[in-house]
Amino acid sequence: MIRLLLADDEAMIRAGVRSILGVDPDIEVVAEAADGRAAVDLVLAHRPDVALLDIRMPVMDGLAACAEITRAAPATAVAMLTTFGDDAYVSRALDGGAQGFLLKSGDPRELIAGVHAVAAGGAYLAPKVAARVISRLRGTGLGRAAAARAKVDALTPREREVLTLLGAGMSNAQIAKRLDLVEGTVKGHLSAILSRLGLDNRVQAAVLAHEAGLVGS
After folding, report:
1. How far out from the chain centre does Cα 179 lie?
2. CB 3.0 to 4.6 Å from 181: which of 29, 104, 164, 185, for a disulfide?
3. CATH topology assigned to domain 2-135
């Protein structure tokens, strides 16, 4: 069972997201908050597996709440609820430790898939916002995509396979199962990928996978 905290200052949005997540018997919303400060306090009280945070909230916004939750409750994975107007904040959310970016108005199946991905230790970018996320993080133009592809070309074939599955939102265990590897081997490949590409975390690696065209947007 995935225990989740939901934070958004709009009650109707919370109701809609809760209704979508309620379709999945493996997800339980254990607490709700209308501002970032309350979200942090409830995470510390309930220790959920996932905190799903709106970016724009009163008292403390989702970016600050993400950073504090990552510091104070590292076992809780953080995913940000975004709109098309919020993608300018993505780099700050990454710096704060966010593991996923889910679109409020996207396909409900993507919302559920994203929650499962971050709960399992994966990184998830909603397909419809991936291109905009990449544009904000890496700049625009064909030259940036070419640079990403050049970086990926330096990886071994197996490392490219691992990076592709990481970009698709899979956890280490899921990647291991797909590629018929032991999980420790996957961890080794990921460590090598991050080192070779000069990246700090798996979310940045997922972004690069999208930018290089390894994952369909």
Report:
1. 22
2. 185
3. Rossmann fold (3.40.50)
Residues 143-193 have pLDDT tens digits of 667 778 888 998 999 999 999 998 887 888 889 999 999 999 999 999 999
Establish whether domains 2-135 and 141-211 are of one fold: no
Q: What is the DSSP string of the chain?
A: -EEEEEE-S-HHHHHHHHHHHTTSTTEEEEEEESSHHHHHHHHHHH--SEEEEESS-SSS-HHHHHHHHHHH-TTSEEEEEE-TT-GGGHHHHHHHT--EEEETTS-HHHHHHHHHHHHTT--EE-HHHHHHHHHHHH-SSHHHHHHHHHHHHTS-HHHHHHHHHHHTT--HHHHHHHHT--HHHHHHHHHHHHHHHT-SSHHHHHHHHHHTTSS--
- Sign of the CA dihedral with 120 first, then 77, 80, and 46 last: positive
Architecture of domain 141-211: Orthogonal Bundle (1.10)
Domain ranges of the chain: 2-135, 141-211
